[in-house]
Amino acid sequence: MANLAAVPFGWERTAMAVENVRERLVRASTVLAQAKVAYAVVGGNAVAEWVGRVDQAAVRFTQDVDILIDRGDLEAAKRALTAVGFVHTQAVDMDIFLDGPAGRVKDAIHILYAGEKVLPDHVAAAPAVGESEPAEKFQVVALAALVRMKLTAFRLKDRVHLLDLIGVGLVDQTWTERLPPELASRLQQLLDNPDG
Q1: Which among 131, 181, 122, 179 has a CA at the least distance from the CA of 154?
Q2: Most CB atoms closer than 10 Å: which of 66, 77, 88, 116?
């Protein structure tokens, strides 16, 4: 059993984990921008960026970093990311970049491809990389595109992320008019029952 006296306290470990994700996200984004690879941060870190603009206390921690690129830019992205210590591999038909040889999949950079479905049964493809805007340290997917992505995936964590966006007032009833019927129906479920 580990010597618990030598292990940092839970809050310290949480703060270190958040900082590690931030560092990984900024390192990857910076090198992609320097390599002229168009990209956008998507997933939970994009949700955190949008929620944090309204209410920093409502931000939820996300472990991995999801980045959207054009498939044609994968080789350039590989060169850029491996130059700063990331290791390319594949897991469950997804291109990922481990943070070093001992990196873990759940801490990795996960690559999604613009204009392609993440999973074959998804109702919509990922947005174009151009559907994004600058954040302070990286390019983030536009809110409308992020909402479509989360409604398309609609796993438990996606529903929670959508509830976070609803909870800070970024998404409301008017959004159902802007979405395809299947996605609008999913959003309506959440709007009708925001407490689960």
Answers
A1: 122
A2: 77
Class of domain 4-142 as given by CATH: alpha beta
CA dihedral for 106, 112, 118, 123, sign (positive or negative): positive
Domain residue limits, the chain? 4-142
pTM of this prediction exceeds 0.90: yes
Residue 33's SS3 state is: helix
The average pLDDT across 64-92 equals 96
Q: Is the dihedral of CA 27, 126, 97, 53 positive or negative?
A: positive
Q: Is 130 helix (H, G, I), strand (E, B) or coil?
A: coil
* Distance, C-alpha 57 to centroid of its chain: 19
Neighbour tally for 151: CB within 10 Å: 25
